């Protein structure tokens, strides 16, 4: 069902009509002597009371769905004082921006690792007719669909790129994941007349049963990466030192002496502890 604008007049015009019906009814009742006079007066007084039921105050960012004996007549969205169809029922729908924080969910990522994830959804109603008639309870609908979309997104990406496979991950690509979550959720909530303004992850962690193991794996990966960088730099420094010694003719190095010097330099540079120099007073041979 699509939202449409309900028929309405300025509320003060409605009050004037109410007063007019009352005035006419009172005048006829006071001036008429016959039997028909009081009946006409009662009719006008009834019209005045009937007109009172059409008065409605609409607050900013608030809407009212107007129904007349089960038929949808339209929605009042403009704030102010209005007079609409008398005897119609009007249900309030909030158009304000609201936040919904999902529960902390335990799901498996694309690699099968159990993770804990939660998100905050910022939304508002843009179609009051869909929110009221196309779903049973649009607020509950938002809650359930938010958790479904969050589970789907969490199972679509890996938590972290531990094997250097490339691609998006939940931890490293928060903006891209949030954008995908918003698009997925918008497709699900369009039927309820809800617009998703933003969706952001608020909690992301490995589940308790594997958190310690994954932390050790991350630490090992970081140590290996650091060691590889240190060795690469040490090789360059040793190479530069040997070339500089030979270029300036400081000392003549045969292959055995060169190997010994390379060994000493590599140990000195790569070692994670301070090295102690050993003074050789004799010949290498």
Automatic annotation (TrEMBL):
Alphabetical UniProt keywords: Hydrolase, Membrane, Protease, Transmembrane, Transmembrane helix
InterPro entries listed in its UniProt record: Band_7, Band_7/SPFH_dom_sf
Keyword Transmembrane helix: yes
Residue ranges annotated for the Band domain, each copy included: 53-218
Molecular function in Gene Ontology: peptidase activity
SMART domains cross-referenced by the UniProt entry: PHB
SUPFAM superfamilies tied to this protein: Band 7/SPFH domain
Keyword presence, Hydrolase: yes
Membrane-spanning ranges: 7-29, 35-58
Signal peptide positions (record): none
UniProt cross-references to Gene3D superfamilies, sorted A to Z: Band 7 domain
GO biological process: proteolysis
UniProt-recorded name of the protein: Regulator of protease activity HflC (Stomatin/prohibitin superfamily)
Organism listed in the record: Tumebacillus permanentifrigoris
